[in-house]
Design goal:
Elements: H1 2-54, H2 80-87, H3 103-111, E1 164-165, E2 174-175, H4 191-202, H5 208-217, H6 224-250, E3 254-265, E4 273-283, E5 288-294, H7 300-305, E6 311-314, E7 330-333, H8 336-344, H9 351-374, H10 378-403, H11 412-427, H12 441-446, H13 448-457, H14 463-481, H15 486-496, H16 510-516
Parallel strand pairs: 3-6, 6-7
Antiparallel strand pairs: 1-2, 3-4, 4-5
Helix pairs in contact: 4-15, 6-14, 8-9, 8-11, 9-10
Length: 522
């Protein structure tokens, strides 16, 4: 009996030890897997840093065996079978002979130049030949045009208003002409000077103190505080035009939205800066851009700005935009460029899978380039997308869903697939309307001047100055989008705006101003 009990106790002990070993083994396996995940994550982050410091910033993707479409020059695949499927004809290899340029032809090409712009003023210098020209007859002139540059010079504009008295009248009266409206009332800064200063800062990214040093070299002392006062007064004048821009942008039913940071000095944070945000709203149809400053990145700012908006918003994957999705009122479209970036970063992690997705994305962009080159209208763009892009999107969606269970979630490729599937319903919507863009790159490009300025003048002096900066970034971005010279535009606007009627404000916005002032040089 005792032997049986000992045997049973031994079995129980061995079973407990076996369970303990199994548990320990499971814990060790989990810890090993966790360590592998951490190691993989560390390698991915290290590779990101290496690309940031030493790698190429381009996200373009070209397959090793890709070829060029024979008619339009677009890349459509890896083999000639793709061309045969597109055209219905057997692909042919075409060769040609190129005549090598002679030294004489090379010299002609080197000497050929674009003609100098006709609107530039000409200063003529006549050089007569030396010697006695008595009896000579001029048969022609050899004219050589050379492009020169003279540094901008300040000058003083004196407005003289004679004062007249009428002594013969019973009641002596005095008359004088009215002083023209000035951009800054009772100020001594003209429209051209203000325009030069503001364009230098918000287009050419020069801080005010550097501009003051440039004036000092020409013997004109302008303090930085004076320039700041001019900047503030000008923005107060431009507020009415900016508000009209906001109204026009809000009235559109398709906008692209993005945000970027700006550091701002804050009295409540001595020794450091506050991180504010410039929210950008872009209408691709009108080519108008509007920036609005907010102290934070929360959704409250864009919710106030888009309070009455109805239509389609195109954004990146930032979760703060999710609350804008309202069926029947607002729909969201995501950005394919952000999706492509995720898979581009995954090439070192899982090259076969990342390459497959990048190849499909490249085909989608080829369709967009084809529409752009052919200059198709919105209806034709929609038809081509429905015919060519929709099958690619369906194939890619199926592949993503099939591959997700077989990939580590914390790996770079796993994160890329999760990111894509979370936004896929929004991404597919761009094919439903020819006006919609495949990505959000247009608004991101509008953010570049802010990023460049941020590197040069570092921060805004206060929250009010940050919003004033948003006004000028908005108006100048509209100029650049519509190929309008910002200096010419601002000089004209500052001259006309003080006496402008409310009904005429929209004509001063760059997209309307350009058509009205069509003869001005760009």
């Amino acid at each position: 009996m005792e032997n049986n009990l000992d045997h049973i106790n031994l079995i129980i002990t061995l079973k407990d030890e076996n369970d303990l070993l199994r548990q320990n083994n499971s814990d060790l396996t989990n810890r090993l897997q966790e360590s592998e995940y951490n190691l993989l994550y560390a390698k991915q982050e290290l590779e990101k840093l290496r690309r940031l410091f030493f790698g190429s910033k381009s996200e373009s993707f070209k397959h090793e065996n890709q070829f060029i479409h024979p008619t339009l020059g677009f890349d459509y695949g890896d083999t000639k079978e793709v061309v045969e499927a597109e055209t219905g004809k057997e692909a042919e290899i075409i060769t040609y002979q190129r005549i090598k340029a002679t030294e004489k032809n090379k010299q002609i090409l080197i000497n050929s130049r674009q003609p100098l712009p006709a609107h530039l003023p000409r200063i003529t210098v006549v050089i007569e030949p030396e010697g006695d020209l008595t009896g000579a007859v001029k048969i022609r002139e050899e004219i050589t045009e050379i492009l020169e540059y003279t540094t901008g010079k300040l000058h003083v504009k004196r407005i003289v208003r004679p004062v007249y008295a009428f002594p013969a009248r019973e009641e002596q009266s005095i008359v004088i002409a009215d002083l023209p409206s000035l951009p800054i009332p009772k100020g001594n800064a003209g429209a051209s000077l203000i325009a030069y200063i503001l364009v230098s800062k918000f287009v050419d990214h020069l801080p005010f103190y550097r501009i003051a040093k440039m004036f000092k070299r020409d013997g004109v002392i302008l303090s930085e505080s004076t320039i700041n006062d001019w900047f503030k007064a000008t923005c107060i004048l431009l507020v009415v035009l900016y508000n009209r821009l906001v109204e026009v942008v809000r009235s559109q039913d398709y906008l692209q939205v993005d945000e970027t940071t700006i550091r701002v000095l804050d009295r409540n944070k001595p020794g450091t800066t506050h991180q504010g945000y410039h929210w950008g709203y872009h209408s691709p149809i009108l080519k108008l851009v509007c920036f609005h400053y907010e102290k934070g990145r929360g959704r409250e700012g864009p919710e106030r700005f888009l309070k009455d908006f109805r239509g389609t918003l195109q954004t990146d994957g930032y979760a703060g935009y999710n609350s804008f999705e309202k069926p029947g009122e607002i729909s969201l479209i995501s950005c394919l460029a952000h999706i492509r970036r995720k898979f581009h970063e995954s090439l070192d992690n899982d090259k076969p899978r990342a390459t497959y997705v990048l190849e499909k994305i490249r085909l989608l962009y080829d369709i967009e380039r084809e529409c752009e080159v052919l200059n198709l209208d919105f209806d034709a763009i929609k038809q081509i997308r429905q015919k060519k892009a929709v099958p690619i999107l369906k194939e890619l969606e199926t592949w993503l869903k099939l591959n997700k269970p077989h990939i580590l979630p914390r790996s770079s490729i796993g994160k890329a697939i999760d990111y894509t599937l979370n936004l896929w319903e929004r991404q597919k919507r761009y094919v439903n309307d020819g006006r919609y863009k495949i990505d959000n790159n247009l608004i991101e490009n509008c953010m570049r001047p802010i990023a460049l300025s941020r590197k040069n003048f570092l921060f805004a002096g206060c929250h009010e100055a940050a919003q004033h900066g948003a006004i000028l970034f908005s108006l100048f971005a509209c100029c650049l989008k519509n190929e309008v010279n910002p200096n010419h535009w601002l000089v004209d606007v500052l001259t006309r705006l003080p006496d402008c009627k409310q009904s005429e404000l929209e004509d001063l916005l760059p997209h309307k101003w350009k058509s009205i002032n069509i003869n001005l040089p760009a």
